[in-house]
Design brief:
By secondary structure, the protein is α/β, with parallel strands linked by helices. The protein has four domains: 173 residues, 3-Layer(aba) Sandwich (Dimethylsulfoxide Reductase, domain 2); 123 residues, 3-Layer(aba) Sandwich (Rossmann fold); 58 residues, Dimethylsulfoxide Reductase, domain 2 (3-Layer(aba) Sandwich); 112 residues, Barwin-like endoglucanases (Beta Barrel), CATH 2.40.40. The chain is 31% helix and 18% strand. It has a six-stranded mixed β-barrel with strand order 16-20-17-19-18-23. A five-stranded parallel beta sheet has the order 3-2-1-5-6, with helices on both faces. A hairpin with a 6-residue loop joins β21 and β22.
Amino acid sequence: MTNSIDEIYTTDCMFLIGTNTTENHPVVSIKMKQAVIEGKAKLIVADPREIDMVGFADIWLRQKPGTDVALINGLMNVMIEEGLVAKGYINERTENFEVLKEAVKSYNPEYVEEITGVPRDDIRKAARLYAEAKRGSIYYAMGITQHTTGTDNVKSLANLAMICGNIGIEGGGVNPLRGQNNVQGACDLGALPNVYPAYQQVEHKDIRTKFEQAWGVSSLSSQPGLTLTDMIIAAAKGDLKALYIMGENPLVSDPDLNHVEKALGNLDFMVVHDIFMTETAKLADVVLPAVSFAEKNGTFTNTERRVQRITKAIEPLEEAHPDWKIIAELATKMGYEMAYESAEDIFSEMRRVTPSYAGMSYERIAQEGGLQWPCPAEDHPGTPYLHKGKFVRGKGLFHAIEFIPPAELPDEEFPLLLSTGRVLYHYHTGTMTRKDEGLNFRYPNAYVEMNPADTFELGIEEEEIVRVSSRRGDINIAVKVTERSPKGVVFIAFHFIEAPANRLTNPAFDPIGKTPEYKVCAVKVEKIS
Protein backbone atom coordinates (compact mmCIF):
# COMPACT_ATOMS: atom_id res chain seq x y z
CA MET A 1 0.00 0.00 0.00
CA THR A 2 1.24 3.50 -0.74
CA ASN A 3 -0.68 4.64 2.34
CA SER A 4 -1.64 3.32 5.78
CA ILE A 5 -4.71 1.39 6.87
CA ASP A 6 -5.79 4.00 9.43
CA GLU A 7 -5.78 6.67 6.70
CA ILE A 8 -9.16 5.18 5.80
CA TYR A 9 -10.43 7.58 8.47
CA THR A 10 -8.82 10.60 6.80
CA THR A 11 -9.88 10.00 3.21
CA ASP A 12 -12.93 11.69 1.68
CA CYS A 13 -13.70 9.07 -0.96
CA MET A 14 -12.77 5.39 -1.23
CA PHE A 15 -12.82 3.59 -4.56
CA LEU A 16 -12.90 -0.20 -4.13
CA ILE A 17 -12.33 -2.28 -7.24
CA GLY A 18 -11.53 -5.98 -7.52
CA THR A 19 -11.67 -6.46 -3.76
CA ASN A 20 -14.31 -8.37 -1.81
CA THR A 21 -12.95 -6.68 1.28
CA THR A 22 -15.39 -8.07 3.86
CA GLU A 23 -14.55 -11.68 3.06
CA ASN A 24 -10.87 -11.31 2.15
CA HIS A 25 -9.72 -8.53 4.50
CA PRO A 26 -12.38 -8.33 7.21
CA VAL A 27 -10.42 -6.10 9.61
CA VAL A 28 -9.83 -3.51 6.87
CA SER A 29 -13.48 -3.72 5.81
CA ILE A 30 -14.64 -2.89 9.35
CA LYS A 31 -12.62 0.34 9.21
CA MET A 32 -14.06 1.17 5.79
CA LYS A 33 -17.63 0.60 6.97
CA GLN A 34 -17.02 2.69 10.06
CA ALA A 35 -15.67 5.58 7.97
CA VAL A 36 -18.78 5.47 5.77
CA ILE A 37 -21.27 5.10 8.64
CA GLU A 38 -19.71 8.01 10.53
CA GLY A 39 -19.92 10.18 7.42
CA LYS A 40 -16.16 10.56 7.05
CA ALA A 41 -15.95 9.12 3.54
CA LYS A 42 -17.98 8.39 0.44
CA LEU A 43 -17.67 4.94 -1.10
CA ILE A 44 -17.57 3.74 -4.72
CA VAL A 45 -17.58 -0.03 -5.29
CA ALA A 46 -16.78 -1.58 -8.68
CA ASP A 47 -17.45 -5.31 -8.71
CA PRO A 48 -19.40 -7.75 -10.92
CA ARG A 49 -20.85 -9.42 -7.80
CA GLU A 50 -23.06 -7.81 -5.20
CA ILE A 51 -20.49 -8.13 -2.45
CA ASP A 52 -21.16 -7.01 1.11
CA MET A 53 -19.47 -3.62 0.62
CA VAL A 54 -22.09 -2.71 -2.00
CA GLY A 55 -24.55 -2.22 0.88
CA PHE A 56 -22.38 0.65 2.17
CA ALA A 57 -21.63 2.24 -1.22
CA ASP A 58 -22.85 5.55 -2.58
CA ILE A 59 -22.38 4.16 -6.11
CA TRP A 60 -22.06 0.56 -7.30
CA LEU A 61 -20.45 0.04 -10.71
CA ARG A 62 -21.32 -3.50 -11.80
CA GLN A 63 -18.82 -4.02 -14.61
CA LYS A 64 -18.57 -7.21 -16.63
CA PRO A 65 -15.62 -9.34 -15.45
CA GLY A 66 -12.40 -8.44 -17.21
CA THR A 67 -13.44 -4.93 -18.32
CA ASP A 68 -11.66 -2.90 -15.64
CA VAL A 69 -9.37 -0.95 -17.99
CA ALA A 70 -12.33 0.25 -20.04
CA LEU A 71 -14.16 1.33 -16.88
CA ILE A 72 -11.17 3.23 -15.48
CA ASN A 73 -10.51 4.88 -18.84
CA GLY A 74 -14.16 5.91 -18.90
CA LEU A 75 -13.86 7.57 -15.50
CA MET A 76 -10.79 9.51 -16.65
CA ASN A 77 -12.54 10.50 -19.88
CA VAL A 78 -15.29 12.18 -17.86
CA MET A 79 -12.79 13.89 -15.56
CA ILE A 80 -10.86 15.34 -18.49
CA GLU A 81 -13.96 16.39 -20.44
CA GLU A 82 -15.49 18.09 -17.41
CA GLY A 83 -12.27 19.75 -16.23
CA LEU A 84 -12.10 17.78 -12.97
CA VAL A 85 -8.41 16.89 -13.15
CA ALA A 86 -5.72 18.23 -10.79
CA LYS A 87 -3.97 20.49 -13.31
CA GLY A 88 -1.33 21.86 -10.95
CA TYR A 89 -0.36 18.39 -9.70
CA ILE A 90 -0.25 17.02 -13.25
CA ASN A 91 1.99 19.86 -14.45
CA GLU A 92 4.36 19.79 -11.48
CA ARG A 93 4.59 16.13 -10.56
CA THR A 94 3.83 14.01 -13.64
CA GLU A 95 4.76 13.45 -17.26
CA ASN A 96 3.17 11.94 -20.37
CA PHE A 97 -0.29 13.32 -19.57
CA GLU A 98 -1.04 14.31 -23.18
CA VAL A 99 -0.46 10.71 -24.27
CA LEU A 100 -2.91 9.49 -21.63
CA LYS A 101 -5.42 12.17 -22.61
CA GLU A 102 -5.35 11.03 -26.22
CA ALA A 103 -5.65 7.36 -25.22
CA VAL A 104 -8.83 7.82 -23.16
CA LYS A 105 -10.43 10.25 -25.60
CA SER A 106 -12.53 7.52 -27.24
CA TYR A 107 -13.67 6.00 -23.93
CA ASN A 108 -16.74 8.17 -23.51
CA PRO A 109 -19.44 6.88 -21.10
CA GLU A 110 -21.62 5.62 -23.94
CA TYR A 111 -18.82 3.50 -25.41
CA VAL A 112 -17.72 2.27 -21.98
CA GLU A 113 -21.30 1.25 -21.18
CA GLU A 114 -21.25 -1.01 -24.25
CA ILE A 115 -18.06 -2.73 -23.05
CA THR A 116 -18.67 -2.89 -19.30
CA GLY A 117 -22.44 -2.92 -18.92
CA VAL A 118 -22.20 -0.02 -16.42
CA PRO A 119 -24.84 2.67 -17.08
CA ARG A 120 -23.30 5.82 -18.55
CA ASP A 121 -24.84 8.06 -15.90
CA ASP A 122 -23.27 5.97 -13.12
CA ILE A 123 -19.87 6.33 -14.79
CA ARG A 124 -20.29 10.12 -14.75
CA LYS A 125 -21.48 10.16 -11.13
CA ALA A 126 -18.60 8.00 -9.94
CA ALA A 127 -16.03 10.09 -11.84
CA ARG A 128 -17.33 13.28 -10.25
CA LEU A 129 -17.50 11.79 -6.76
CA TYR A 130 -13.88 10.61 -6.84
CA ALA A 131 -12.46 13.64 -8.67
CA GLU A 132 -14.19 16.23 -6.50
CA ALA A 133 -13.03 14.63 -3.25
CA LYS A 134 -10.20 16.50 -1.55
CA ARG A 135 -8.52 13.16 -0.79
CA GLY A 136 -9.41 10.04 -2.73
CA SER A 137 -8.04 6.56 -2.04
CA ILE A 138 -8.09 3.45 -4.21
CA TYR A 139 -8.15 -0.09 -2.81
CA TYR A 140 -7.79 -3.22 -4.91
CA ALA A 141 -6.96 -6.89 -4.55
CA MET A 142 -6.73 -9.98 -6.74
CA GLY A 143 -9.85 -9.04 -8.68
CA ILE A 144 -7.55 -6.56 -10.40
CA THR A 145 -4.32 -8.55 -10.66
CA GLN A 146 -5.57 -12.05 -11.56
CA HIS A 147 -6.14 -11.26 -15.23
CA THR A 148 -4.09 -11.50 -18.39
CA THR A 149 -4.20 -7.70 -18.23
CA GLY A 150 -3.39 -7.47 -14.52
CA THR A 151 -0.42 -5.15 -15.02
CA ASP A 152 -2.52 -2.91 -17.28
CA ASN A 153 -5.23 -2.81 -14.62
CA VAL A 154 -2.77 -1.64 -11.95
CA LYS A 155 -1.22 0.98 -14.24
CA SER A 156 -4.70 2.26 -15.03
CA LEU A 157 -5.45 2.71 -11.34
CA ALA A 158 -2.18 4.62 -10.95
CA ASN A 159 -3.29 6.85 -13.84
CA LEU A 160 -6.61 7.46 -12.10
CA ALA A 161 -4.98 8.38 -8.80
CA MET A 162 -2.44 10.74 -10.39
CA ILE A 163 -4.96 12.49 -12.61
CA CYS A 164 -6.69 13.65 -9.42
CA GLY A 165 -3.51 14.38 -7.44
CA ASN A 166 -4.12 11.56 -4.98
CA ILE A 167 -0.65 9.99 -4.71
CA GLY A 168 1.77 11.38 -2.14
CA ILE A 169 -0.90 12.72 0.19
CA GLU A 170 -2.37 11.47 3.46
CA GLY A 171 -5.67 9.69 2.90
CA GLY A 172 -4.97 9.03 -0.77
CA GLY A 173 -2.92 6.53 -2.70
CA VAL A 174 -3.20 3.26 -4.60
CA ASN A 175 -3.51 0.54 -2.01
CA PRO A 176 -3.25 -3.17 -2.89
CA LEU A 177 -4.68 -5.36 -0.13
CA ARG A 178 -2.32 -8.33 0.07
CA GLY A 179 -3.90 -11.76 -0.14
CA GLN A 180 -1.82 -13.60 2.46
CA ASN A 181 0.11 -12.83 5.61
CA ASN A 182 3.66 -11.59 4.91
CA VAL A 183 3.28 -11.56 1.13
CA GLN A 184 4.60 -8.00 1.31
CA GLY A 185 7.54 -9.09 3.46
CA ALA A 186 8.41 -12.00 1.19
CA CYS A 187 8.56 -9.67 -1.81
CA ASP A 188 10.53 -7.05 0.13
CA LEU A 189 13.20 -9.61 1.03
CA GLY A 190 13.77 -11.03 -2.43
CA ALA A 191 11.26 -13.87 -2.87
CA LEU A 192 10.89 -12.89 -6.52
CA PRO A 193 12.87 -14.30 -9.45
CA ASN A 194 14.32 -11.02 -10.75
CA VAL A 195 15.37 -9.10 -7.63
CA TYR A 196 17.38 -9.25 -4.43
CA PRO A 197 16.00 -7.73 -1.19
CA ALA A 198 14.49 -4.23 -1.53
CA TYR A 199 13.68 -4.90 -5.22
CA GLN A 200 17.34 -4.53 -6.28
CA GLN A 201 17.60 -5.95 -9.79
CA VAL A 202 19.75 -9.05 -10.35
CA GLU A 203 20.73 -7.79 -13.82
CA HIS A 204 22.65 -4.80 -12.38
CA LYS A 205 26.33 -5.59 -11.91
CA ASP A 206 26.86 -3.23 -8.95
CA ILE A 207 23.92 -4.82 -7.14
CA ARG A 208 25.31 -8.32 -7.74
CA THR A 209 28.71 -7.20 -6.46
CA LYS A 210 27.08 -5.86 -3.29
CA PHE A 211 25.43 -9.20 -2.55
CA GLU A 212 28.47 -11.24 -3.53
CA GLN A 213 30.42 -9.35 -0.88
CA ALA A 214 27.66 -9.62 1.71
CA TRP A 215 27.28 -13.37 1.21
CA GLY A 216 30.92 -14.27 0.56
CA VAL A 217 30.31 -15.73 -2.89
CA SER A 218 31.33 -14.94 -6.45
CA SER A 219 29.62 -14.84 -9.83
CA LEU A 220 25.97 -14.47 -8.85
CA SER A 221 23.83 -14.94 -11.94
CA SER A 222 22.65 -11.93 -13.90
CA GLN A 223 19.71 -13.91 -15.31
CA PRO A 224 16.31 -13.70 -13.60
CA GLY A 225 14.88 -17.01 -12.43
CA LEU A 226 11.50 -18.51 -13.24
CA THR A 227 8.14 -17.42 -11.86
CA LEU A 228 5.78 -20.03 -10.41
CA THR A 229 3.83 -20.07 -13.67
CA ASP A 230 7.03 -20.57 -15.67
CA MET A 231 8.15 -23.40 -13.36
CA ILE A 232 5.02 -25.44 -14.01
CA ILE A 233 5.41 -24.97 -17.75
CA ALA A 234 9.10 -25.92 -17.59
CA ALA A 235 8.36 -29.00 -15.48
CA ALA A 236 5.74 -30.17 -17.97
CA LYS A 237 8.27 -29.82 -20.80
CA GLY A 238 10.95 -31.67 -18.85
CA ASP A 239 13.21 -28.61 -18.68
CA LEU A 240 12.84 -28.37 -14.90
CA LYS A 241 13.90 -31.53 -13.08
CA ALA A 242 13.56 -30.68 -9.38
CA LEU A 243 11.30 -28.38 -7.38
CA TYR A 244 11.35 -27.12 -3.78
CA ILE A 245 7.86 -25.99 -2.69
CA MET A 246 7.58 -23.99 0.52
CA GLY A 247 4.23 -23.06 2.08
CA GLU A 248 2.40 -23.49 -1.21
CA ASN A 249 -0.18 -26.01 -2.39
CA PRO A 250 -0.26 -25.78 -6.21
CA LEU A 251 -2.37 -28.92 -6.58
CA VAL A 252 -5.27 -26.81 -5.28
CA SER A 253 -4.23 -23.20 -5.92
CA ASP A 254 -2.84 -23.23 -9.47
CA PRO A 255 -4.95 -22.96 -12.64
CA ASP A 256 -5.69 -25.95 -14.89
CA LEU A 257 -4.98 -28.58 -12.23
CA ASN A 258 -4.86 -31.45 -14.72
CA HIS A 259 -1.85 -29.78 -16.30
CA VAL A 260 -0.29 -29.07 -12.88
CA GLU A 261 -0.63 -32.73 -11.86
CA LYS A 262 1.12 -33.85 -15.05
CA ALA A 263 3.86 -31.23 -14.62
CA LEU A 264 4.65 -32.22 -11.02
CA GLY A 265 4.53 -35.88 -11.97
CA ASN A 266 7.15 -35.20 -14.62
CA LEU A 267 9.73 -34.03 -12.07
CA ASP A 268 12.65 -36.21 -11.06
CA PHE A 269 12.60 -34.89 -7.49
CA MET A 270 10.20 -32.77 -5.43
CA VAL A 271 10.55 -31.42 -1.89
CA VAL A 272 7.67 -29.88 0.05
CA HIS A 273 8.36 -27.73 3.10
CA ASP A 274 5.10 -27.09 5.01
CA ILE A 275 3.28 -27.27 8.33
CA PHE A 276 0.65 -29.80 7.16
CA MET A 277 0.52 -32.76 4.81
CA THR A 278 -1.08 -30.93 1.90
CA GLU A 279 -2.32 -32.45 -1.35
CA THR A 280 0.98 -31.40 -2.93
CA ALA A 281 3.06 -32.79 -0.04
CA LYS A 282 1.51 -36.23 -0.55
CA LEU A 283 3.25 -36.38 -3.94
CA ALA A 284 6.65 -35.23 -2.66
CA ASP A 285 9.79 -37.34 -2.47
CA VAL A 286 10.74 -35.54 0.75
CA VAL A 287 8.57 -33.56 3.18
CA LEU A 288 10.29 -31.10 5.54
CA PRO A 289 8.07 -30.29 8.55
CA ALA A 290 7.99 -26.57 9.36
CA VAL A 291 6.37 -24.72 12.25
CA SER A 292 3.47 -22.31 12.55
CA PHE A 293 3.68 -18.63 13.47
CA ALA A 294 3.15 -19.51 17.14
CA GLU A 295 6.28 -21.68 17.23
CA LYS A 296 8.88 -19.25 15.93
CA ASN A 297 10.43 -15.82 16.29
CA GLY A 298 10.86 -13.31 13.51
CA THR A 299 9.09 -10.52 11.66
CA PHE A 300 6.14 -10.19 9.33
CA THR A 301 5.58 -7.24 6.99
CA ASN A 302 1.90 -6.55 6.42
CA THR A 303 -0.04 -4.93 3.61
CA GLU A 304 0.71 -1.35 4.78
CA ARG A 305 4.48 -2.05 4.78
CA ARG A 306 4.53 -2.34 8.58
CA VAL A 307 7.27 -4.63 9.90
CA GLN A 308 6.11 -6.34 13.09
CA ARG A 309 7.68 -8.76 15.56
CA ILE A 310 6.35 -12.25 16.18
CA THR A 311 7.46 -14.03 19.34
CA LYS A 312 7.40 -17.76 19.94
CA ALA A 313 4.49 -18.78 22.16
CA ILE A 314 5.13 -22.55 22.29
CA GLU A 315 8.03 -24.82 21.50
CA PRO A 316 7.97 -26.56 18.10
CA LEU A 317 6.39 -30.00 18.11
CA GLU A 318 8.40 -33.15 17.45
CA GLU A 319 10.99 -32.71 14.66
CA ALA A 320 9.57 -29.55 13.08
CA HIS A 321 11.86 -26.53 12.68
CA PRO A 322 11.47 -22.83 11.86
CA ASP A 323 11.70 -22.04 8.15
CA TRP A 324 15.05 -20.26 8.44
CA LYS A 325 16.64 -23.19 10.24
CA ILE A 326 15.47 -25.72 7.64
CA ILE A 327 16.85 -23.58 4.82
CA ALA A 328 20.12 -22.84 6.63
CA GLU A 329 20.77 -26.52 7.41
CA LEU A 330 19.93 -27.54 3.85
CA ALA A 331 22.23 -24.88 2.39
CA THR A 332 25.02 -25.99 4.69
CA LYS A 333 24.66 -29.63 3.62
CA MET A 334 24.79 -28.48 -0.01
CA GLY A 335 28.12 -26.72 0.52
CA TYR A 336 27.24 -23.15 1.49
CA GLU A 337 27.44 -22.61 5.24
CA MET A 338 24.62 -20.47 6.63
CA ALA A 339 25.89 -19.99 10.16
CA TYR A 340 22.98 -18.12 11.72
CA GLU A 341 22.17 -18.53 15.40
CA SER A 342 18.72 -16.97 15.40
CA ALA A 343 16.09 -15.15 13.37
CA GLU A 344 17.46 -11.90 14.78
CA ASP A 345 20.85 -12.69 13.20
CA ILE A 346 19.14 -12.89 9.86
CA PHE A 347 17.24 -9.65 10.47
CA SER A 348 20.54 -7.92 11.22
CA GLU A 349 21.83 -9.04 7.83
CA MET A 350 18.58 -7.91 6.23
CA ARG A 351 19.15 -4.42 7.63
CA ARG A 352 22.63 -4.29 6.09
CA VAL A 353 21.55 -5.24 2.56
CA THR A 354 18.01 -3.81 2.47
CA PRO A 355 18.07 0.02 2.49
CA SER A 356 14.36 0.36 3.25
CA TYR A 357 14.79 -1.73 6.43
CA ALA A 358 18.14 -0.27 7.54
CA GLY A 359 16.81 1.83 10.42
CA MET A 360 14.85 -0.97 12.06
CA SER A 361 15.89 -3.22 14.92
CA TYR A 362 14.08 -5.79 17.01
CA GLU A 363 14.07 -3.31 19.90
CA ARG A 364 12.61 -0.42 17.87
CA ILE A 365 9.97 -2.62 16.24
CA ALA A 366 8.82 -3.95 19.62
CA GLN A 367 8.81 -0.53 21.28
CA GLU A 368 6.92 1.21 18.50
CA GLY A 369 4.49 -1.56 17.62
CA GLY A 370 6.01 -1.95 14.18
CA LEU A 371 7.67 0.37 11.67
CA GLN A 372 6.69 1.12 8.08
CA TRP A 373 9.34 1.08 5.41
CA PRO A 374 11.18 2.91 4.06
CA CYS A 375 12.97 3.43 7.37
CA PRO A 376 16.54 4.15 6.23
CA ALA A 377 18.12 5.22 9.54
CA GLU A 378 17.73 4.53 13.24
CA ASP A 379 16.43 8.07 13.87
CA HIS A 380 13.89 7.79 11.03
CA PRO A 381 10.25 7.39 12.19
CA GLY A 382 9.18 5.20 9.28
CA THR A 383 6.96 6.23 6.38
CA PRO A 384 3.16 6.26 6.74
CA TYR A 385 2.65 7.12 3.07
CA LEU A 386 4.88 7.05 0.00
CA HIS A 387 5.82 9.61 -2.67
CA LYS A 388 5.38 12.71 -0.50
CA GLY A 389 6.75 15.69 -2.45
CA LYS A 390 8.04 13.62 -5.35
CA PHE A 391 7.96 10.12 -6.81
CA VAL A 392 10.88 7.73 -6.44
CA ARG A 393 11.53 8.00 -10.19
CA GLY A 394 11.20 11.80 -10.07
CA LYS A 395 7.91 12.41 -11.88
CA GLY A 396 4.91 10.13 -12.01
CA LEU A 397 4.57 8.52 -15.43
CA PHE A 398 1.17 8.23 -17.10
CA HIS A 399 0.66 5.18 -19.30
CA ALA A 400 -1.66 4.94 -22.31
CA ILE A 401 -3.57 1.71 -21.69
CA GLU A 402 -6.04 0.25 -24.17
CA PHE A 403 -8.75 -2.21 -23.19
CA ILE A 404 -7.98 -5.83 -24.12
CA PRO A 405 -10.67 -8.50 -23.60
CA PRO A 406 -9.96 -11.55 -21.40
CA ALA A 407 -8.17 -14.50 -22.97
CA GLU A 408 -11.30 -16.68 -22.92
CA LEU A 409 -14.92 -15.56 -23.13
CA PRO A 410 -18.21 -17.50 -23.19
CA ASP A 411 -19.36 -19.03 -26.46
CA GLU A 412 -22.02 -21.46 -27.66
CA GLU A 413 -20.30 -24.49 -26.14
CA PHE A 414 -19.34 -22.84 -22.85
CA PRO A 415 -21.94 -20.09 -22.41
CA LEU A 416 -21.22 -18.98 -18.84
CA LEU A 417 -18.38 -16.98 -17.35
CA LEU A 418 -16.64 -18.34 -14.24
CA SER A 419 -14.90 -16.21 -11.63
CA THR A 420 -13.16 -17.66 -8.58
CA GLY A 421 -12.29 -16.28 -5.16
CA ARG A 422 -12.58 -16.77 -1.42
CA VAL A 423 -15.24 -16.90 1.27
CA LEU A 424 -15.00 -15.40 4.74
CA TYR A 425 -14.68 -18.66 6.66
CA HIS A 426 -11.84 -20.29 4.72
CA TYR A 427 -8.38 -19.31 3.66
CA HIS A 428 -6.53 -20.12 0.46
CA THR A 429 -6.38 -23.93 -0.11
CA GLY A 430 -7.97 -24.73 3.26
CA THR A 431 -4.75 -26.25 4.60
CA MET A 432 -5.44 -24.69 7.99
CA THR A 433 -9.05 -23.48 8.04
CA ARG A 434 -10.62 -26.72 6.88
CA LYS A 435 -9.14 -28.47 9.90
CA ASP A 436 -11.21 -26.26 12.20
CA GLU A 437 -14.62 -27.59 13.30
CA GLY A 438 -16.12 -24.14 13.82
CA LEU A 439 -15.18 -22.84 10.40
CA ASN A 440 -16.33 -26.04 8.71
CA PHE A 441 -19.64 -25.76 10.54
CA ARG A 442 -20.10 -22.22 9.20
CA TYR A 443 -19.12 -23.11 5.62
CA PRO A 444 -18.85 -26.88 5.16
CA ASN A 445 -19.17 -27.37 1.40
CA ALA A 446 -18.21 -25.98 -1.97
CA TYR A 447 -20.88 -24.21 -4.02
CA VAL A 448 -21.26 -22.80 -7.49
CA GLU A 449 -23.04 -19.49 -7.06
CA MET A 450 -25.60 -18.96 -9.85
CA ASN A 451 -28.13 -16.29 -10.73
CA PRO A 452 -31.81 -17.40 -10.54
CA ALA A 453 -32.31 -16.62 -14.24
CA ASP A 454 -29.58 -19.11 -15.18
CA THR A 455 -30.83 -21.86 -12.84
CA PHE A 456 -34.39 -21.38 -14.14
CA GLU A 457 -33.25 -21.80 -17.76
CA LEU A 458 -31.37 -24.99 -16.84
CA GLY A 459 -34.07 -26.38 -14.55
CA ILE A 460 -31.67 -26.43 -11.56
CA GLU A 461 -32.66 -26.07 -7.91
CA GLU A 462 -30.90 -24.92 -4.74
CA GLU A 463 -28.38 -27.49 -3.38
CA GLU A 464 -28.65 -29.65 -6.51
CA ILE A 465 -25.37 -31.29 -7.55
CA VAL A 466 -24.40 -30.21 -11.06
CA ARG A 467 -21.43 -30.68 -13.36
CA VAL A 468 -19.41 -27.56 -14.18
CA SER A 469 -17.07 -27.98 -17.15
CA SER A 470 -14.48 -25.91 -18.98
CA ARG A 471 -12.07 -26.73 -21.80
CA ARG A 472 -9.67 -28.05 -19.16
CA GLY A 473 -11.76 -30.27 -16.91
CA ASP A 474 -14.94 -30.65 -14.89
CA ILE A 475 -16.14 -30.88 -11.29
CA ASN A 476 -19.35 -31.89 -9.53
CA ILE A 477 -20.58 -29.26 -7.09
CA ALA A 478 -23.71 -28.08 -5.25
CA VAL A 479 -25.63 -25.02 -6.45
CA LYS A 480 -26.31 -21.87 -4.44
CA VAL A 481 -29.04 -19.81 -6.11
CA THR A 482 -28.44 -16.10 -5.55
CA GLU A 483 -28.72 -12.74 -7.27
CA ARG A 484 -25.29 -11.89 -5.88
CA SER A 485 -23.80 -12.97 -9.22
CA PRO A 486 -25.23 -11.44 -12.39
CA LYS A 487 -26.93 -13.47 -15.08
CA GLY A 488 -24.38 -15.34 -17.16
CA VAL A 489 -21.70 -15.29 -14.43
CA VAL A 490 -21.00 -18.05 -11.90
CA PHE A 491 -18.67 -17.95 -8.91
CA ILE A 492 -16.81 -20.77 -7.12
CA ALA A 493 -14.54 -20.48 -4.07
CA PHE A 494 -11.27 -22.35 -4.64
CA HIS A 495 -10.73 -23.71 -1.10
CA PHE A 496 -12.32 -27.13 -1.65
CA ILE A 497 -10.27 -30.04 -2.98
CA GLU A 498 -13.38 -32.18 -3.42
CA ALA A 499 -14.67 -29.65 -5.97
CA PRO A 500 -11.53 -27.78 -7.05
CA ALA A 501 -12.39 -24.64 -8.97
CA ASN A 502 -8.91 -24.57 -10.46
CA ARG A 503 -9.57 -27.72 -12.42
CA LEU A 504 -11.58 -25.33 -14.60
CA THR A 505 -9.57 -22.10 -14.64
CA ASN A 506 -7.52 -20.84 -17.56
CA PRO A 507 -3.70 -20.91 -17.22
CA ALA A 508 -3.36 -17.90 -19.54
CA PHE A 509 -1.33 -15.29 -17.68
CA ASP A 510 -0.28 -11.67 -17.67
CA PRO A 511 2.88 -11.41 -19.82
CA ILE A 512 4.61 -9.09 -17.34
CA GLY A 513 3.43 -10.10 -13.88
CA LYS A 514 2.87 -13.75 -14.90
CA THR A 515 -0.29 -13.92 -12.74
CA PRO A 516 -2.87 -16.37 -14.16
CA GLU A 517 -6.35 -15.29 -15.20
CA TYR A 518 -8.28 -16.83 -12.30
CA LYS A 519 -11.12 -14.32 -12.60
CA VAL A 520 -12.41 -15.05 -16.11
CA CYS A 521 -12.95 -18.26 -18.08
CA ALA A 522 -15.74 -19.92 -20.02
CA VAL A 523 -17.74 -22.81 -18.51
CA LYS A 524 -20.99 -24.70 -18.86
CA VAL A 525 -23.26 -26.03 -16.12
CA GLU A 526 -25.20 -29.26 -16.66
CA LYS A 527 -27.68 -31.30 -14.70
CA ILE A 528 -26.42 -34.72 -13.66
CA SER A 529 -28.95 -37.30 -14.78
